[in-house]
Amino acid sequence: MGEITEHDVVAAITAEGGTARLLGGRAIHALCGEALPAPLRRPSADIDLVINGRSRKALKTAMAALSCQPEQEFNLLNGKERMIFYAGDTKIDIFIDVFRMCHTLQLGNRLELHPLTLSPADLLLTKVQVVRAERKDFSDAAALLLVCGLGQGTQGAIDTGYLAKLLGSDWGFWRTATGTLRALGERGADICGVELTPALERHVNELLHILETAPKSLSWRARAMIGERSPWYELPEEPDTDHLPNHA
Amino acid sequence: MTVNFARKATGLVRQAGAKDVFVYNVNFINIAIGVAFMFLFMPNGSYPGVNIYISTILCTLFVLPTSLVYAMFASAMPRSGGEYVYVSRATKPLFGFVASWNYTIWCFFYIGVPAAFLGKYGISALFRELGVSFSSSSMTNWGNWFTTPFGTALTGTVLIIIFAAVFIYGVALYMRIQNLLFVIASVGLAITAVILLQHTPADTLTAFNHYAGTFTGKPDTYGAITANLGKGVVSEAPFDLKQTLISMTWPFTVLGFSIASAYIGGEIKGANRSQMIGMPGSLVYSAVWLLIISFVTLHAFGFVFLGNVAAVTPGNVNLGFTPTFSELAAALTHNIWLVLIIGLSFALWTYAWLPIYILTCTRNLLAWALDGLAPGKVAEVNESTHSPLIAIVVSAVLGTGFLWLYAYDSAFSTISGFFGQVCGTFVLTSIGAILFPYTQKDMFEASPVAWRIAGIPVLSIVGVLSLIGMLVIAWAFLNDPQSGISFSNPFMLYVNLGVFLSGFIYFYATKFIQARQGVDINLAFAEIPPE
């Protein structure tokens, strides 16, 4: 059997009656396809997926069928929301219902919006929630904005109504997302090249305007009064475990 | 294929932060139970010339290096399983397993002990305090019921079930509950200290007689106590260093265990900072509290009074059970709300060891199972609860068994298991710390604790100090007439030895069984291969 692809994994889980959607770099490639501008193409080693809680059994069966090896200790300690498997050297990173990084996204009920990946709006949120965004995060966010564009509803574009509502109820997430978008706007030429920069800046500014002017909840306003005096995000750890003992 | 923990992970928000770790370790030290033990056992005449403050300070100094050893190991190897991971990599898998086995078997036992404490020391005292406040003899009798073997065991069983259920739901829930209860318990302890500080022996004797007289039926209960003790009445003796050193066993029962977070190392955010603050930080914090509460208790009641109350057999003077410092403080106030806060907050301290022992046992079982040293079923995630249900249930069931044993067999009502943990586990871990920078050079150099003084690894230096400290503590246990460990009555010494040696038998038996099935468990202990 050749190298397992993200399509194989999603198909295997679906065949077992589960629901799985891609996120991360491979999702951007799958969603944008040939429309993805050359400067924004990047290799993606891992397969990142979201499943809903009802698909656990399907996941387990599918992983066994694909001869994927579980990361036992990680899955034991974190299996409620997160699991890791390996297909050869390829890591399959699975989020269950929840995407918990710098900020938390509830995704269990949003998997049906797109047949293969998360919706463009949710994909964008997974990128702009990063407090210390790296080039790949900016690149993926730029790709989504340039290829999918902004719109209302769920017809292939980034649903600004959903973003405005979600971020309008969570000041911390709003603060990080708008900060990351501003940084993206400033780095446009570096990220996607001079030619695409005006379009990117237009999308970024439009989205920022929407997020700035959207109605805000009472809890958003209350948290905004505290502002940056109190931490508003988590910092996920990127465990440098190469020097550590094996435990599996 | 063997895969490695969280390699190439895109990031993970771990469940416990620095604050959680600090509270976790302070709870495992258990300030209130520490003071209660110290005043129940140290001034009762067993250690003539003892100085409680010096004993506490010396104990802190002797156990601090061990706390640092665990904290540095936890920084270098942020994995769950404590010394099982550390010692197996620093020396040989056999010693890592034996150190862990020894600690874990006693942990199973000590799941039961704090479960018993809730009824025995916590609820019993609360009911008696309220019984006196409300002039209700039935409430006082209820308090006495909680100290009976059945009352103690039943209450503890319910508590074990509750915490097992919490852990089945998840560690994050436990941390939230822990932090909330810790605040209440700490506020109550501070209030207790303030009340004690406002009194001196000039008025506390009258208050005690008034309080105790309501259920002993003796208006001069303290007089009855001294009369009952006769020649055994406690008196103050000149300072004696040897007796003070031997009595360190009592502060050690709490201060020796600032290391709880080592066993959940894989679930802690920012392991380096969290563990370095959480272990030695919690030790120093708790030691200061022990000194403060000891001071205000002695200030209020005096050494001789506390010694006589601790020395008398409670049934001889209708006391039912010996009052702790907390109940004595409650006797000094007529404010029902203060009585309630003092009693409730003390009750919240009594069982604080219990959930941590359950989690420790669970994580150690998982670590063994992942390396093939326990049945694989133990490390399976339950489909319904999405948690390691079997490991949690095994811990809870064994803990409940030990609870009933402890409740009904006085031979186990000792602190002798701590001796086993010192000799069989902490000593091995100290040796592991000395060797680690030399046997695992690459791992040590890549760790955040690759510090040196004059070219010598700090971990090795601290390991030597830890070894010395643990040997001194072991000496104290062997000489302490109340530790349950002695050569003249060696039953618990044999039990300790048996627990330790059984680890070797288990390891070799498992290795043999696995080898017959074609599994080489040594492979599980290999280093991560280079990418």
Could you walk me through the main structural features you see in this protein, from its secondary elements to its overall organization?
The complex is a heterodimer of chains A (248) and B (531). By secondary structure, chain A is of the alpha/beta class. Chain A has helices spanning 6-15, 25-32, 56-65, 72-78, 120-128, 135-148, 160-167, 171-186, 188-192, 197-213, 218-226, and strands spanning 20-23, 47-51, 69-70, 82-87, 90-96, 98-100, 104-106, 150-151, 158-159. In chain A, 46% of the residues lie in helices and 14% in strands. Residues 239-248 of chain A have low confidence and may be disordered. Chain B has 531 residues and is mostly helical. Chain B is built from 22 helices and two strands. Chain B is globular.
What characteristics describe this protein?
heterodimer, A: 248 residues, 5-stranded mixed sheet, two-stranded antiparallel ribbon, 46% helix, globular, disordered C terminus, B: 531 residues, mainly alpha, 2 strands
Please state the overall shape of chain B, judged from the principal axes of the Cα atoms. globular
Main structural class of chain B = mainly alpha
In helices, the fraction of residues of chain A equals 40-55%
Task: Give the overall average pLDDT of chain B.
Answer: 91
- Let me know the largest β-sheet of chain B: 2 strands, antiparallel
- Give the DSSP E fraction of chain A (strand runs of 2 or more residues): 5-15%
Task: Give the SSE string of chain A.
Answer: HEHEHEHEEEEHHEEHHHHH
What radius of gyration of chain B results from the CA coordinates?
23 Å
DSSP strand (E) fraction of chain B? under 5%
User: For the largest beta sheet of chain A, what order do the strands appear in spatially?
Assistant: 1-2-5-4-3
Spatial separation of the terminal alpha carbons of chain A: 25 Å
The 3D shape of chain A can be described as: globular
Name the structural class of chain A: alpha/beta
Oligomer designation? heterodimer
Averaged pLDDT of chain A:
91
Would you list the SSEs of chain B in sequence order as H and E?
HHHHHHHHHHHHHHHHHHHHEEHH
Q: How is the main sheet of chain A built?
A: 5 strands, mixed
Give the low-confidence spans of chain A: 239-248
The largest beta-sheet of chain B arranges its strands as 1-2
**What's the alpha carbon Rg of chain A, rounded to whole Å?**
18 Å
